[in-house]
């Protein structure tokens, strides 16, 4: 990594962390319940779902792609386990395996549609997959909520804590460290950045772009499956209606706020985690201040628009800097 790139990453981290700090100060001023240990633990527990989805989303964005099916994938995996519970399957290990296999398979299908069947852009295929999974989640559960009460093995990841620190966020930290090492210290990680930042150089280097892209969407599916498992522990139920919730937009916003780009070739795990914490801090603060849900969605929509504008502005400034350097 060049000194310029390191400096750029540090500036992005500083800006993102500064924004998170400012939000915390604002909510602390307006709500005496915000600056408490229990509330911070609640933010970490609630952010685990989005943090996991954001891992897969980041890999897709780095390759100049996108995965709009992550939230629906997580919900469908939970609903698939719910269907099995309705059928009398109560073995937690079997249910967890089914959830993970289903998520990975859906990710593989998304990758295959892009790389082998050559659909024009993953926006098309993953948006279609989102709707397919929404309908499938309702079908397998008969449009009913399914309770996982008594299935402690399935609910453990999303509901348990060490002391008061949520197990789900400990898993998030471990995954983020592993993915950081993969992206920054391995040939595969360099191939992922290269595939998004410079496709022509990737081709000339002999890198199999199709395999790299498929790997990214498979990981996105795996993260969605783990997020689905966390959601079961958090709520104790599955509900196919949740597949249409804007989980994908939260994940995209987390990545873009954290320094990723729709143009590809950029993004870090630390920046993405900070972005996810910003999104969840906003939601938590709005709830404490009893802000109407419609207003919450409007404000979060503005945040997403702002994140996209930030991405575009950043790209223009860097392109201008490159042109000046070339003179």
Structure overview:
The chain has 327 residues and is mainly alpha-helical. It contains 13 helices and four strands. The strands form two sheets. Strands 1-4 form a two-stranded antiparallel ribbon. It has a two-stranded antiparallel ribbon with strand order 2-3.
Q: What separation lies between the terminal Cα atoms?
A: 23 Å
Structural class: mainly alpha
Query: Regions with pLDDT < 50 over 5+ consecutive residues?
Result: none
Please trace the helix and strand order, writing H or E for each element: HHHHHEHEEHHHHEHHH
Helix content: over 70%
Read across the widest sheet, the strand sequence of neighbours is 1-4
**Total helical elements:** 13
Q: In one word, what is the shape?
A: globular
The major beta sheet can be summarized as:
2 strands, antiparallel
Gyration radius from CA atoms, angstroms: 20 Å
Query: What would the average pLDDT be, to the nearest integer?
Result: 91
Tell me the strand percentage band: under 5%
Number of strands: 4
